[in-house]
Specification:
391 residues; alpha+beta; Trna Endonuclease, Chain: A, domain 1; six-stranded mixed β-sheet; five-stranded mixed β-sheet; 15 strands
Length: 391
Amino acid sequence: MKGELRLSPISDAVRDEARAIAASLLEVAHAGLGSPRGELEAAWAEVPQGPSGKRLRDGIEKLVVDACEFVAPDGDEAVALRREVFTRAARARAQGDLERPRVLAEVGAALGLSADDVVARLYADLPDAHPLAKVGFQRADAVVRAYEAGQAAAVLLRATRVTVEVACGSASAVRALFRALKFHRLLFRAEALDDGRYRLTLDGPLSLFQSTKRYGLALALMMPHVAACDSWSLEADVLWGASQERIVFRASGDGEEGGVAPPLPDEVEALRRAVSRAGLGWRAEPARKLLSTAGGGVIVPDLCLSRDDGAKVYLEVLGYFRRETVFQRVDAAADLRERVLFAASDRLRVSEDLLGDDAPASLYVYKQAMSARAVVSRADALAARPGREGR
């Protein structure tokens, strides 16, 4: 019978110290709503550490910062503005008549902006310039509880298999959790339980043959989103110590604040923008719906594609999953009410013919990057198929 690993809670003194640090960091954050990230990071750096040292202080700060939402403006606008300013400046320099105020004023006049507005927007796409829109944590106690949950994350680096059950009272917490799983490219299977809970079964890093360190860190980064659910329990099979003893690790907790949903993966966000800008009749937005299969499984789409006539197609990207995942999705596709397009990398060695022309889902196999035109073409074909919710 496997042994069991238990974690020792942090002491009252350390908890009080962590709470004081969290309170100071949150005070800076709430006072700095709307301020650029660079200014806030400088202010956070002034918060002193306590007797326990830098490690505790840095861990608390990371939780606070990761739960904050910063607004990223449209980068194309700043790029175009810089191009215009630098082009005019180069032209003026070649003529021996370069004056910075005049260049800025000329660009501003052409765009209906003041010179000060031009300067403010010139590098607005850089992370340091992104303004703070939302503070994820409201109370220091919630930060400390999330820090304690982080101890469980460290154990998961040695896991071969992890099972998590969560109950989320808000749809936003559910979406944050599932988007985190997709963002960190974790290998998971999701199941909807009868009482409104979800069961997640994840491969542990020590079950893989390569990239175990990177995958283990991704698994650890999942924990704040698990802790954001109303209640959660976790059981992991762990290989522990130099002897690789097989033991079981269990942890549980109640809901926390935070759990801000991460952004879409870069390749999915690039596709979203490309579809919306292609002028092919479809818009793409992050999916806000989980799709249930007749067998109790859950499909977590990345994007929702919509057309003016009301047609909807959900897109789930499987490019970083295992080959078996594609076959599992194909098996579940026959029970779907919604139209779903699965996108899989050709590295998974699967064929688009796995799904027939009469199925409510189809498979798009791509080589290096997903094509907006290919996605839209398949969305048109899916929307045209008869079915219960084709439109």
